[in-house]
Write a structure and sequence with these properties.
The structure holds 3 protein chains of 3 kinds.
Chain A: H1 7-26, H2 32-56, E1 66-74, E2 79-85, H3 89-106, H4 117-136, H5 140-149, H6 151-161, H7 166-195, H8 202-208, H9 214-231, H10 240-247, H11 250-275, H12 277-304, H13 308-329, H14 332-363, H15 368-371, H16 375-378, H17 380-393, H18 402-412, H19 419-452, H20 459-462, H21 471-489, H22 492-509
Antiparallel strand pairs in A: 1-2
Helix pairs in contact in A: 1-2, 1-4, 2-3, 2-4, 3-4, 3-11, 3-14, 3-21, 4-5, 4-6, 4-11, 5-7, 6-7, 7-9, 7-10, 8-11, 9-11, 9-12, 10-11, 10-13, 11-13, 11-14, 11-22, 12-13, 12-19, 13-14, 13-18, 13-19, 14-17, 14-18, 14-21, 14-22, 17-19
Chain B: H1 4-23, H2 27-52, H3 60-90
Helix pairs in contact in B: 1-2, 2-3
Chain C: H1 3-6, H2 8-25, H3 34-57, E1 64-74, E2 77-85, H4 87-110, H5 117-136, H6 140-158, H7 165-195, H8 206-214, H9 220-237, H10 246-249, H11 255-265, H12 268-276, H13 278-281, H14 285-305, H15 312-332, H16 336-364, H17 375-378, H18 380-394, H19 400-417, H20 421-449, H21 464-479, H22 494-498, H23 514-520, H24 553-574, H25 587-597, H26 599-673, H27 681-702
Antiparallel strand pairs in C: 1-2
Helix pairs in contact in C: 2-3, 2-5, 3-4, 4-5, 4-11, 4-16, 4-21, 5-6, 6-7, 6-11, 7-9, 9-12, 9-14, 11-16, 12-15, 12-16, 14-15, 14-20, 14-26, 15-16, 15-19, 15-20, 16-18, 16-19, 16-21, 18-20, 18-21, 19-20, 20-24, 25-26
The chains are: A mainly alpha, B mainly alpha, C mainly alpha.
Chain lengths: 511, 103, 703
């Protein structure tokens, strides 16, 4: 495939799941097994295509858009159907495709009540198109549509297959994100009219930036900020996240943590920063402060949790805090760290949610106290995997988590856009508190490992037959487990591919 | 011919119709009141046609009056059918009983 | 000649390879994986010896740096995967591989029959790899990676017997305490690298940082802030008070692990890092003074704690804390070479002592010295090797510990001569602590080897695989000292081994503050190490590096007197199998015995021993166990409470409540407003007419 001309590959990879979702709905619901297999087949073909795209991507020109498609779409409002991919989009696009494939494989296991794999898998495929589209859309309207497209399937996933408080959680999820999106849309409109170029093209607008007065930049950034910050979520916009994560079915949690949250940070990096650099510069210290509060706060909340899944959900608040800290640094190293943290968190936390889901299937509870330890005795392999992923999540070097955390703090020591001069002391404080956050993070993970993994199994479970990791779980987990290690040892896999694109992007900032 | 007479009559008929629509409980009487209002409008239409465009060969006002009479007939047909159905289901033609559209 | 140095990375890679191979195929092998570990470490050890030999005979050598760009970090900065091989690296490589190899061999027998035998060897390999990675790292980020991996391995190995709650807690405590220090390390490294941003694309590179510091390109803020923060990390890793609390608890791990942790792989990391960054440290006297003071506090109060312990491993643990205090204090008084020299010799004799302790514990199935006694006869080889180790630890003349410890004291003396208060502090407190060290080691030795067997087992000598490492280490515990002693040749010796172009023989006194430097009388000369006294240098610039250490009869006399006194006192108290009457140091009986037999002892006991051993050390124990531990626990509790409050009040009520409040008030209002929708069409019509009339009137009025 020639990355310059093969725009069709991206279009096909993007809409294949959508077509697949349509095809699934045509199959009779009684063909239970066939439906599940079809979903695996569809996502596998999609992933193969994405893998081919990844392989033929021209890494020497990672800063430029490749696999582009650009045709008029809604001429009345100048919206264009504009797709493309650079070094920043590629990893996220790849991750989306991979995680959906793994989720499809995982769904060959029984679904939580009410079953209905046909509906579930169709929604999942629809979700995939939305998620993947967000990362390759280069037109604000198109971006917005993909961004919003994810809401509906996720709403139903949580609302139908979720836990006991699913109604509350799904509505909360929907309302929070929609609330932010509204302001984001208004800000997009403001950007469109202020730029006056009759174009929604992200690249064009970035090239024009900065435009408008400082007031305009501030308000527009505030709007965009609200939309993305709720999605990330930045403290204090996070309360939807623990509820949604806890109540969502396993696959929902995985995709939520693995991809949906990344759409927020990606939006910051792709849209908010380059198009509104002045606004970004004004907001950067605030973002930094909120990010670090999120890190410390998330860790503190984790210490107080009694529910495994809720604990992992809160850990996302902390980890996304590191990503936001990288963004707040407003320099190349910071953006690099943020993007790495994005992917690393997607893989690690996605994996943790897989594990939490399987744990729930076995113990039929997520209460740490009820599980009561001894998992290493009861399910040795499972216990080792859990320890491995938990340790990766607490940011141990050699595993993926480290390369999101340390570089973020490192980048924040000398923020770009002249922030180092005016806010140098503040940023040093941020680094210190972020580092303290890593200790707290280590604290709650070790405590979790101690309470779940170590010791002897309690009486309740001692004679219960609990199955260790099953074949289907191995298949859906191994790629993630391997990626955690591979990215930890070869951070160049991501840093290298992103480098040129990030340099380009920071060029727009004028830093 | 002075338009005062017809206009006064129309005003009286319309007011009576409004009163009937708002105040009467019986659905049939409400329907009749609606007819009163329609006819008041008819009178006005004819009156103003003659007042403003006397001798105009295109008698728009009268044409509209005719339309309204036609539509009113249909409306009464539908309206009575609804009233009959209501009576059949609830053994009452009191409009206060028909509050299915409440919040 | 340099060919061998190029392969330094193999030394590091072999233990990792061993860990991977053991994990993969270990269980299928006859030796359950231990043979892979031993073979890999053996090769690694041989190679390290070769490297050490090359750098030693040719010393001082140019540092050899080899690196590949591993990943870009954004902004043109690059993270390198690279190695830096100089004398310091070679010393550490030799120490780590020697001890690790010995521990591997020893564990093959010691861990026999334990659960997770294969896993244990894999972890040993990983542990060794992590430490070696830290040692050869050519940049601080790679060092941080090794450092954190060391922390992880210690967690996994200290909590090796994870079925027990206390062992889990010990593992957690070790990881979290050191992780707390890592806050300092990480921020410190970041601060230092930030100082390099304008100067290079590889801001973590250790050589470049050192060069920049010496060239005065780093601001004082960078140096002070960066190094103090890094020192915080070193304090936690190297067990400096008050962050030493994890170290005694770490005894929960298997004994060979304790040997590895205490001698080579973990606690030395902090001292090593300080030495690695010595050119930066030495730029600022505030930093030096801080380091020296913490070192002095630790070396003295840490040692006192060992007096009241019954658990042999805890005695050794506290002694490690104390010895680490010496090393850190030495860095703080300019005794760069002295510090590493002590690190080097201490590694051998502390490994020896721990492995000896393991041999004893294996024989009597108890950690407590009150359960031992009379072991000399049953375990002759363990006995003599343990005694050699104890003598070295106590600094008995002509053992390795003697030469290295005195080197530190002399460094203090020179520093004091240069007008620094911390110098005298190190000298005198160091001497006092040497007395304490001798006393508790003598106490332990007497209780273990003298008297009757008090255990419920028939002690037996350990097997060959356990004894061989003991003997090798015993020889090293004596021989290592001759690398830097009055007997050594002028060149090469340990000092020239550590010298680099940045820290050459004629290095400038590193303080850039001209005034102090002038006052110190050390302008234009090196304090790389303290080989000779100031007087030896005459009136001219001091050439401390030139010439081998000389005898210091005054110091020798003091040391000998203190040593004899301590051993004498210990013998008086414990030499006759006292535990029969006084098994747990119940003071009443003990006092009676002394009062009855020696009036002289009575005096010393009442006014020296009791206050020192019971009041002061108890106070120290108290401060360690209750105050500091309590503070940590209190911080833990407070954090937990804060966490609960944050979650329950702030998160669930204020933030979530506020959001929900908005939703609920919307619901309330809509409930009120919906009443208008009565379904009564006539009411609607009425409202419609009323509205129309109102509008008409309004428009009319507006006309």
């Amino acid at each position: 495939m020639d990355p310059n001309t093969a725009g069709w590959a991206l279009v096909v990879a993007l809409f294949l799941p959508l077509a697949g979702a349509g095809a699934l709905t045509l199959m009779p619901a009684s063909m239970d097994r066939e439906i599940r297999r079809a979903a695996v087949a569809i996502t596998a073909v999609g992933f193969a295509l994405v893998a081919a795209v990844t392989a033929s991507f021209d890494y020497s020109r990672a800063g430029e858009l490749q696999f582009t498609t650009d045709v008029p779409w809604i001429t009345a409002i100048d919206a264009r159907f504009s797709l493309g991919m650079d070094g920043i989009s590629l990893p996220l696009f790849f991750l989306t495709s991979l995680l959906t494939l793994l989720c499809a494989i995982y769904t060959t296991k029984p679904l939580p009540s009410p079953g209905k794999p046909k509906a579930f898998l169709s929604l999942m495929l629809l979700l995939q198109t939305g998620m993947a589209g967000t990362f390759v859309a280069f037109d604000l309207i198109l971006f917005f549509i993909f961004f919003e497209l994810t809401l509906v399937p996720m709403f139903f996933m949580i609302g139908m297959w979720g836990g006991p408080r699913r109604d509350y959680a799904s509505v909360k999820f929907f309302l929070y994100t929609l609330f932010g999106s509204v302001f984001m849309l208004v800000a997009f409109l403001a950007i469109y009219f202020q730029a006056g170029a009759n174009s929604w093209s992200i690249t064009e607008l970035s090239n024009m930036a900065p435009f408008g007065s400082t007031t305009f930049q501030t308000w527009a950034f505030l709007g965009v900020f609200l939309g993305f910050a709720i999605k990330v979520p930045v403290w204090p916009f996070h309360p939807w996240l623990p509820d949604a994560h806890t109540e969502a079915p396993t696959v929902g949690s995985v995709l939520l943590a693995g991809v949906l949250l990344k759409m927020g940070t990606y939006g910051f990096i792709r849209i908010a920063l380059p198009i509104l650099p002045d606004g970004a510069a004004r907001f950067a210290p605030m973002i930094g402060v909120l990010a670090v509060i999120g890190i410390v706060y998330g860790a503190l909340c984790c210490l107080a949790q009694t529910d495994v899944k809720r604990l992992i959900a809160f850990s996302s608040v902390g980890h996304m805090g590191f990503v936001m800290l990288g963004i707040a640094a407003m320099n190349e190293a910071g953006i690099q760290a943020a993007l790495f943290g994005n992917i690393a968190h997607g893989i690690i936390t996605g994996m943790l949610f897989f594990l939490a889901g399987s744990m729930h299937e076995r113990y039929h509870t997520r209460e740490i106290a009820v599980i009561g330890g001894g998992m290493l005795k009861k399910m040795p392999v499972y216990g080792v995997l859990f320890t491995y992923v938990a340790i990766a999540s607490l940011g141990l070097p050699g595993l993926a988590g480290f390369w999101g955390e340390f570089p973020a703090m490192w980048a924040a020591i000398s923020p770009g856009l002249g922030l180092a001069d005016s806010y140098g002391g503040l940023y040093l404080g941020l680094v210190v508190f972020a580092a303290i956050g890593t200790v707290l993070t280590a604290g709650y993970f070790l405590w979790l490992i101690q309470r779940i993994n170590l010791g002897e199994p309690t009486e309740r479970w001692a004679n219960e037959p609990l199955a260790d990791v099953q074949a289907i779980e191995w298949v859906s987990w191994l790629p993630l487990l391997a990626l955690i290690l591979a990215l930890g040892i070869f951070p160049r896999l991501l840093f290298g591919g992103q480098d040129a694109a990030v340099t380009n992007l920071v060029g727009f900032l004028g830093g | 011919m002075s338009p005062i007479g017809p206009l006064l009559l129309a005003a009286f008929l319309f007011s009576a119709g409004v009163y009937g629509v708002i105040a009467r409980r019986n659905a049939v009487l409400v329907l009749i009141s609606v007819e009163l209002m329609l006819n008041a409008v008819n009178i006005n239409l004819v009156t103003f046609q003659n007042l403003l465009f006397p001798g105009d060969p295109a008698v728009t006002g009268q044409m509209f009056a005719l339309f309204i009479i036609g539509v009113a007939a249909a409306e009464v047909g539908v309206g009575l059918a609804i009233v009959f159905n209501m009576f059949r289901n609830r053994a009452s033609v009191d409009v206060d009983d028909a509050d299915l559209m409440r919040w | 000649m340099d060919a061998l140095l190029e392969y330094t990375w193999v030394v590091v890679a072999l233990p990792l390879l061993s860990a991977v191979l053991i994990t993969a195929v270990g269980k299928q092998l006859p030796g359950k994986g231990s043979e892979i570990g031993i073979a890999a470490l053996g090769l690694s050890w041989l190679l390290a010896i070769g490297i050490a030999w090359q750098t030693f005979v040719a010393s001082p050598v140019e540092p050899l740096e080899r690196s590949v760009d591993w990943t870009p970090l954004g902004g043109g900065f690059v993270f390198e995967l690279g190695m830096l091989v100089d004398g310091l690296t070679a010393v550490m490589l030799l120490l780590v591989t020697t001890v690790s190899f010995m521990v591997h061999v020893y564990s093959r027998e010691y861990m026999q029959g334990e659960p997770r035998y294969t896993y244990f060897f894999a972890m040993l390999g990983l542990f060794t790899f992590s430490m070696l990675l830290l040692v050869v790292a050519n940049n601080l980020l790679l060092a941080v990676i090794g450092w954190e991996l060391v922390g992880l391995c210690s967690y996994l190995l200290i909590g090796f017997y994870w079925e027990g709650k206390s062992n889990q807690d010990a593992g957690n405590k070790a990881f979290l305490t050191t992780k707390f220090g890592d806050v300092g390390l990480i921020v410190g490294v970041i601060v230092l690298s930030a100082g390099m941003f304008g100067l290079t694309d590889t801001p973590f590179n250790i050589l470049e940082i050192n060069e920049a510091a010496v060239a005065g390109q780093l601001s004082t803020t960078t140096i002070v802030l960066g190094m103090l923060l890094i020192f915080l990390g070193c304090m936690s890793k190297s067990g400096q008070m008050p962050l030493h609390v994890w170290l005694p608890d770490a005894m929960a791990g298997p004994t060979p692990v304790s040997a590895l942790i205490h001698a080579a792989t973990m606690v030395t990391a902090g001292v090593f890092l300080l030495a690695r960054l010595y050119p930066v440290v030495a730029q600022n006297q505030a930093v030096m003074a801080t380091i020296a003071i913490f070192g002095v506090l630790t070396l003295f109060f840490g040692g006192l704690l060992a007096l009241v312990q019954d658990d042999l491993k805890k005695i050794l643990a506290y002694s490690t804390i104390s010895q680490l205090g010496y090393m850190v204090a030495a860095i703080g008084v300019g005794g760069y070479a002295a510090s590493i020299f002590h690190l080097f010799t201490h590694g051998f004799f502390k490994a020896l002592l721990f492995l000896g302790a393991g041999s004893l514990i294996h024989a009597v199935h108890s950690n407590n010295i009150s359960d031992m006694g009379g072991m000399a006869k049953a375990m002759p080889h363990t006995f003599w090797t343990f005694i050699v180790g104890s003598l070295a630890l106590a600094g008995f003349p002509l053992t390795a510990g003697f030469f290295s410890k005195d080197e530190i004291l002399i460094a203090g003396e020179i520093w004091a001569g240069a007008g620094f208060f911390t110098g005298s502090l190190v000298y005198w407190v160091g001497l006092a602590a040497a007395f304490v060290t001798t006393f508790y080691m003598a106490r332990a030795c007497f209780l273990i080897f003298a008297g009757e067997n008090r255990s419920h087992h028939t002690p037996h000598e350990s097997g060959k695989l356990m004894l061989a490492p003991l003997m090798v280490l015993a020889v090293l515990s004596v021989a290592a000292g001759y690398l830097l002693s009055p007997f050594s040749p002028e060149q090469p010796n340990f000092e020239t081994w550590l010298a680099t172009p940045l820290l050459p023989a004629e290095t400038t006194f590193p303080f850039t503050d001209e005034g102090t430097a002038a006052a110190s009388g050390l302008v234009g000369d090196g304090v790389l190490a303290a080989g000779t006294s100031l007087a030896a240098a005459g009136d001219g610039p001091v050439k401390v590096l030139h010439g081998v250490p000389t005898w210091h009869p005054d110091l020798l006399a003091i040391v000998l007197v203190l040593f004899s006194l301590a051993v004498f006192l210990a013998y008086r108290f414990y030499g006759k199998g006292l535990p029969e009457r006084d098994p747990t140091l119940s003071m009443g009986r003990f006092t009676d015995v002394l009062v009855a037999k020696y009036g002289f002892d009575d005096f010393g006991y009442r006014y020296i021993v009791v206050p020192v051993r019971d009041k002061l050390s108890a106070a120290a124990t108290y401060s360690s166990n209750v105050l500091i531990d309590g503070m940590v626990a209190g911080v833990g509790r407070a954090t937990k409470n804060a966490a609960m409050t944050t979650y329950r009040v702030v998160d669930q009520q204020v933030i979530d409540g506020g959001i929900n409040g908005a939703a609920f008030s919307a619901a309330w209002w809509s409930d009120k407003l919906k009443r208008i929708q009565s379904g009564d069409v006539q009411k609607y019509a009425g409202v419609l007419v009323a509205g129309t009339i109102l509008l008409v009137l309004a428009f009319a009025a507006a006309r």
